[in-house]
Amino acid sequence: MKWVSLLLVSFMTLFLAAFYYHRITPESFQYPAIYNGDGIAVLAISKTYGESKQVNFLGQKFPERLGAPYTGNWNDAPQTEDLLFSFCGHLVNWFGLGPGVNIALLVAHLLNALGAYWALRHLRASVLESACLSILFGISYYALSRNLGHLTLTYAFLIPPGLAVLFRGVAESSYLKDKSNFIRFCLIFVCTGLFNPYYTYMTLQLTGWVFIFKFYAKHSDRYRYLAGIGLAVFSFVLTQWDTLTYRWEAGENTGVVARNFAGQLFYGLHLPELFLPARHNLSQLVEFSISKYYNPSIGLMGVGEAMKSYIGVIGVIGFGILIWGFLARGNSDDTRQIKILGISMGWILIYSLAGGLNLFVGLMGLTVFRGSMRFSVFILMISLFAIPLLLRQIKGKGIRISVLVGIFAIGLWDIYPVSKNRLDHSITSPVFQGMLSDQKFGAAVDEKIEMGDKIFMLPVIVFPEGGNRFKLADYELFRTYLFSEKGHFSYGSNKGRSRDDWQFEIERLSIEVMLPSLRAMGFRGIIVHRNGFEDRAAKILQSLTSLLPASDFIHSEAGDKVFVDIVNIPSQVEITMIHKLKGPMFSHDELLQGDSWVWSQESTGWYDLNNPTSEPVKRRISFKIAGIMPGNFTIQIDGETVQQVEGVQSTTVDLPEIELKPGMTRLLIKSDIQPRKPNPRDPRSLTFRIINLELTP
After folding, report:
1. Is the N-terminal amide bond of 464 cis, ω within 30° of 0?
2. Which of 103-107, 268-272, 496-500, 550-554 has the lowest mean pLDDT?
3. How far are the Cα atoms of 6, 431, 583, 666, 670 from residue 632, in angstroms, in the given order?
4. Sign of CA dihedral 228, 230, 233, 234
5. Three-state secondary structure of 7-27
6. Cα 245 from chain centroid (whole Å)
7. Span 194-206, pLDDT tens digits
8. d(CA 70, CA 351)
9. How far apart are the first and last CA of the chain?
10. How far apart are CA 638 and CA 636, in angstroms?
11. pLDDT recorded at residue 298
């Protein structure tokens, strides 16, 4: 019976979730269930964890194909779910991007159901009760609304076991004295710290209250709860090890995570959100909710996070049972359990409600946990725990089973919106037609470029949480990266550091000045996201078409993106940075004075100077060399030494009348300086820089 019920729970949960996301057929399963908003960021992060050798569970994270011309830097933004995204990355490698993330999403619903099943059985609910209620939790309104866009929140499978062991611990004075219970308790808390920090945060709050209760009650196992807190904190710190070590080296980045006190008011939990859905089978209920509560004039809107806290009819029933049981007199086991559940729910409400204790915590400066409406999933699970307590009061097995089946049917109807009311996840929707356009666009760009070619993204938008720009939604700059296997893109490195400020300076230049500057930095092309400009980039494209032939342009089918190959920009002598000289480092102030430079990250670097004419030309080449420390320098033209400088840290090089043959002439700079970090705040290893390289007749 046990294994049959588990198989039934697993099959029903997977089928219902796949049906909701329109991912039943083999064709539909090839495409991700969500392709907009935060879902695009999840796709990009999963792809990066799968393909990048420098993005892994514990080490510092430098995604090689983002943040061009450097590697990206994902160490500043705290990422607690490294284990989850490592799992997603493996799935993407094994099955492809669409199938991989679809599997990860379905696994989330499956684990939620299995976690709830174990918790209900641990609290001595019957097999049938556990099966029915765990399926409802596995496909809860909360999880289906979070879906791929908030995949880290969809993985809520550790909440039910965590609550179950805490509730058993309160009810039994020596619960953790049992070795098997203590091992389970420790495993649950170790895993809790490896997943979403909101869930860890609330679980630890409840654990702290359990410890205080058991301490004053002098229960024999009271100190073992401190072990759970310590293990969860240890796991959490483990996931943050890359961010902590990077901050020790480079200093704190206060701009990477945008959180403030106002956000705690907006994203706080409001009671109507628990009981009134913004989407539902009953249109009258939705109309009532929107007209009376989800109204922008009173600050509650049926969009975004507010629409995802609904606990459903079954949750409301459980909520009512807890209130009634808490107020009822009596000292039976069921009454005591209801009071334990009710006290826990009361604390969550006191803390989470807008204007509650979470706001007080924000006043003291801790604003990172602004989205207290996310704690509604704890309220949902506690409410489901109360259902078996109600069923125990019913006399007669047949009647009890009939009531349970009715509850299950009502729960499915309530949680599972009809097609016209749910998000359109079908591959025929406009969103997915845009994805197919991106797929073809990425393949066309790959045909045009070589492996590792650098591509500059317009407009310039920071990551993460860069916000929308005109009709360009946040994270949409990832859309070409998702379907390209060759490009190295300028977007996607953590904001808040000055390293990438040069991108905003470049964006302000005219196209005539921008293109040679990008070529000098080693960029092969640019991608113009037309929706990010008020005029849909009409002026930019007009300037580009006046400089370059039509063969250098690739337009997406959807008309929202244009790739421009800038290899053929017209110039008498073109300066092209190749291979070893990696990445410009512009100083904001010195750029305003007309100075720019490029750092070399190795002891030897070179430029290739392109003479596109059929005749040799003579040019004067001048630049300044500045080493990270004193050293010896050798300057060569096509392998012939033209100048040597010894024992200097900075020197000016002036090469008059250098003949540049048709085609490429290599200017090579050798140094005996070994790479080193310039200062604790700069993570790169550098040797020397070339300042203001100029070619003049």
Report:
1. yes
2. 496-500
3. 71, 57, 22, 20, 8
4. negative
5. HHHHHHHHHHHHHHCCCCCCC
6. 20
7. 999 999 999 999 9
8. 43
9. 88
10. 6
11. 47
Q: Which of 324, 341, 334 is nearest to 382 (CA)?
A: 341
Cα distance between residue 389 and residue 397, in whole Å: 14
Given a contact cutoff of 8 angstroms between Cβ atoms, the answer to whether 380 and 105 are in contact is no
Name all contacts of 532-535 with Cβ < 8 Å and 24+ positions apart. 532/458, 532/459, 532/461, 532/469, 532/470, 532/471, 532/472, 533/459, 533/470, 534/470
- Interatomic CA distance for residues 605 and 422, integer angstroms: 56
Whether residue 525 contacts residue 449, with contact meaning beta carbons closer than 8 Å, is answered with: yes
Buried b or exposed e, range 554-578, using 16+ CB within 10 angstroms: bbbebebbbbbbbbebeeebbbbbe
Question: How would you label 79-95 residue by residue, b for 16+ Cβ within 10 Å and e otherwise?
Answer: bbbbbbbbbbbebbeeb
Q: What pTM did the predictor assign?
A: 0.83
Angle between helices 97-122 and 127-138 (to 10 degrees): 140
Token pair for 695: 């070619």
3-class DSSP state for residue 611?
strand
**Nearest C-alpha neighbor of 229 from the set 201, 265, 257:** 201
DSSP letters spanning 426-444 = STTSHHHHHHHHHHHHHHH
For 380-396, the pLDDT digits (tens) are 999 999 999 888 888 88
Q: How far apart are CA 104 and CA 93, in angstroms?
A: 13
Q: Give the contacts of 451 (CB within 8 A, at least 6 positions apart).
A: 486
DSSP SS3 for 466: coil
Single-letter amino acid code for the residue at 52: S
Q: Classify residue 114 as exposed, middle or buried by CB count within 10 Å of its CB (0-12, 13-18, 19+).
A: buried
Q: Would you list the DSSP string of 55-70?
A: --SSS----TTSSTTS
- Three-state secondary structure of 364-425: CCCCCCCCHHHHHHHHHHHHHHHHHHHHCCCCCHHHHHHHHHHHHHHHHHHHCCCHHHCCCC
